[in-house]
Amino acid sequence: MKRFIKNKIVFACAVMFLFSLSVNAKERSSKPNVLFISIDDLNDWIGMLGATGHPDVKTPNLDRLAARGVYFANNHANTTACTPSRLSVMTGLSAVSTGCYTNKSGVQNQNLWNEVLALPAFFRQNNYYTMACGKIEGHACHGIEKEYPHQKLWDERLPRGFLMDEQTLRDGQGYGGTIFYPFPKGGSPIRNHNASYKGHSLCAGPINPDEIPGGKMPDELAADWAVERLKREYDVPFMLGIGFVRPHVPYTAPKQYFDMYPVDKIYIPTDPIGEMDDIPLYGKAMAYGVFEPGDERMVRELGCEYRKELVQGYLACVTFMDAQLGKVLDALDNSNYADNTIIILWSDHGQHLGEKRSWRKQCLWQESTNSPMLWVVPGLTKGEICKQPSSLLDIYPTLIQLCGLNEKVKSDGISLLPQLKDVNKKRSQPAVTTWTYGSHAVRDERWHYIRYYDGSEELYDADNDYGEHYNLAENPDYKAIIAKMKKYLPQDIYTPTSNDVEFNSYKKRVDQWKNNPYWIPEWLR
């Protein structure tokens, strides 16, 4: 009798074990894997179909990826700085909803992490194995796992940071964030020219392998880590996050990528005479930035060659990043997961390279708001361009729907599934971008409307003026267009804080300029 009972127990355990294997196999086959690729500060200087960017750029791996899926050419970041933008991706909530407007403003919505699961945590709780390397989340998400255990993001993660040595630290001249190193050998030309200037990360230069601690850049390490993970076997579907930091400043990459762009032969963005004539003071304050005496002034003081070197460096970093992406795509193609993996590739915002006298991304013009986004979904559209307005806020609800995780979630975004099936399918609302409290931009298929905190406005016709050289806001012929776009302006819930350095800086500067127009720099007039 005892032997009979024991045999029944053994048999039952075996059945349960086989059932669990069956469940895992079913889960593995029914749910797609997710390759979640973030690129830092990538503007539309890419070779993908539909990109209007730079004529000299070389991005063969972005190009081949675009041939597999849908490129959203009219996609926009919800905010034009790293931390708030990445927070919007991870939560599906806008800066107005979270109260996180800038890198240092903090998250004012104290109930945020009780209201919504961060995207990787959501996938973990739905039986996905989550992994990450490089820059994915941003500062606003880094501490949540300690305070909110239910928000655990990753089952495993490549540690953040970068191996440093004394020379590398000296070249950085006090710049924070080791993941962005190395700087050019000898340090930033801007800091060497003006030791008090805090914007010295705006620099470029080729790096030899013996000048890189450990011999590999952070993005190379991230790509290697991701490639190794794609060689493994998994019992459940996975979400693999890869965050490439280039082309974020400083614009450094191995020398071979600089050699692809001879500095005397590349196209430099035009800087039309009178470019700032029709820009409101608030827009000019954003172009000036928060660092004294302004990026554009420092670039001018260093001369025309410095402007060329920055463009060369940015292009070199884009191609370097593209090469790392290629390693990951090769690994995926050679893996068991090639036919059952969704790829979402996105940039947290754009980047100015001198357009509108700006060298950063913290503005509301096209160069800052436009965020390249590409989706590859097995069984859906290939090699298509969607020109409908879309937002990084749409990533969260789209991924959930594509993966069959149809739980009701709180989101300010809209699923992109209709456009992934038909790129010409009309969207029900435009894309909205916020940069600092009270300043917002609205972008539909054709028009780009900006309203600043002080009520001043800009309007651009993307069909006829993609470079946004002619502000139509004062033209009475466009009153109806402006009235239509205004309906989509968000209502700010949270007020600025003392940590909102950019907002306070812009407001103070505009007040000063109104009182004394002679204080407006010549290069912004």
Structural overview:
- It contains 20 helices and 16 strands.
- The chain has about 525 residues and is α/β, with parallel strands linked by helices.
- The chain folds into 2 domains: about 1-30; about 30-525, Alkaline Phosphatase, subunit A (3-Layer(aba) Sandwich).
- The strands form 4 sheets. It has an 8-stranded mixed β-sheet.
- The radius of gyration is 24 Å and the shape is globular.
List the helices and strands and how they pair.
Elements: H1 2-30, E1 33-39, H2 60-66, E2 70-72, E3 75-76, H3 82-91, H4 95-98, H5 112-115, H6 119-124, E4 129-134, H7 139-142, H8 144-147, E5 156-157, H9 166-172, H10 189-193, E6 204-207, H11 218-230, E7 238-244, E8 251-254, H12 255-258, H13 281-288, H14 295-302, H15 304-333, E9 341-347, H16 366-369, E10 373-376, E11 384-386, E12 390-391, H17 395-402, H18 417-421, E13 431-434, E14 440-443, E15 447-451, E16 457-461, H19 479-486, H20 501-515
Parallel strand pairs: 1-7, 1-9, 2-11, 3-12, 4-5, 4-7, 6-8
Antiparallel strand pairs: 2-10, 9-10, 13-14, 14-15, 15-16
Helix pairs in contact: 2-15, 11-15, 13-20
